Amino acid sequence: MQKVGELISRSRHHLHRSIRPIASLSRVGDSNFPGGTTTTPRTLPGGPVCQPPSLFRASFRRHLILQTASEPVKLNRLSESDTGIVEVKFDRPEAKNAIGKEMLKGIQRAIEAVNGDSSTNVVMLSSSVPRVFCAGADLKERRLMGPSEVQSFVNSLRSTFSSFEAIEVPTIAIVEGAALGGGLELVLSCDIRVCGESATFSLPETGLAIIPGAGGTQRLPRMVGRSIAKELIFTGRRIDANEALSIGLVNYCVPTGEAYQKALQLAREINQKGPLALKMAKKAISEGMEVDLSSALVIEEQCYEELLNTEDRLEGLAAFAEKRKPKYTGK
To answer: Residue 259: exposed, middle, or buried by beta-carbon count in 10 A (0-12, 13-18, 19+)?
Structure first.
């Protein structure tokens, strides 16, 4: 009996040692998820890695979420000779760049990044989604909102577009495809607009028994005139690129697919100018257009005075006298 007991004890001990490498798991930091941990199985000598099915499923889900997650608004700073040019790109293809809560937050973060970077001289706003700039508000998301929530969201949309308009440096909208509703309202918040021949524009809100609520009723008439703006808003009619050019809605209409290159050409021309002068010119025009001429001339005088004692102004004069390109520093 004693020998039998010893045999059983040895067998249990051997079995315990042989399964320990499989069951023993060490916890290590997961670099994909800051502050998180995951379990990593040890490998049997000469054998494959063993991982519990539930752990494998959890790990797979984590990596799937990581791979499919995508920022709806992306920021790209150009380099070398184009340093100073910043691209803001919409990238929500599954919803045609419709503006929902997350996309609105992305626009807000982009504005903060641009305003916080003193090296930015010009901003280009575009879409990475073929044949569409922005389809407007995310109506699927909005259907789930109550009246107070809708009002809060539209107020936030309006203030965000006003913040985009208030960016100190020149902004250029690049439109290939459709710019509808809130998408067009954001385009109206830019300083310069370039479109491809396949671009279309519309404020269709009256067809949904509402009105453009993110600045469309105010910016459009200031741009194209009261009568034309009323027609477009009353009817919700979609206009093509050539008509947009004829009424002054866009600065340039180029062959389809060439809007980005035209905008980049403009951005490069702007980028060579004095950074402080660009900011003051934009301020003088934007603020001056909202007051009477006498008050506007006072604003112009104040903006000019801001530039008198700058290093850039002296550099500009020296470069002119020496017949060379100026090297502006924004000081």
So the answer is: buried
* Model confidence at 239: pLDDT above 70: yes
Distance from C-alpha of 235 to C-alpha of 185, rounded to nearest angstrom: 16
Model confidence at 144, in pLDDT bands (50, 70, 90)? confident
The amino acid present at 162, given as its one-letter code, is: S
Catalytic annotation, pick one of 136, 181, 185, 259 = 185
Distance (Å, rounded) from C-alpha 243 to C-alpha 13?
A: 86
* pLDDT of 65 higher than 60: no
**Which residue among 84, 100, 136, 182 is the active-site one?**
182
Q: Residues 321, 325, 330, CA angle at the centre, nearest 5°?
A: 100
How much of the chain exceeds pLDDT 90, in percent?
65
Prediction pTM value = 0.77
Active-site residue, selected from the candidate residues 205, 214, 244, 259:
205
Q: List the catalytic residue out of 98, 137, 173, 178.
A: 137
Give residues with Cβ within 8 angstroms of 124, minimum separation 6.
85, 86, 87, 88, 171, 172, 174, 260, 263, 264, 267
Name the residue with tokens 């850039």. 312
In tens, the pLDDT along 89-111 reads: 999 999 999 999 999 999 999 99
Active site residue 301: no
127-142 b/e with 16+ CB inside 10 Å = b? bebeebbbbbbbeebb
Catalytic residue check, 311: no
- Give yes or no: 225 in active site: no
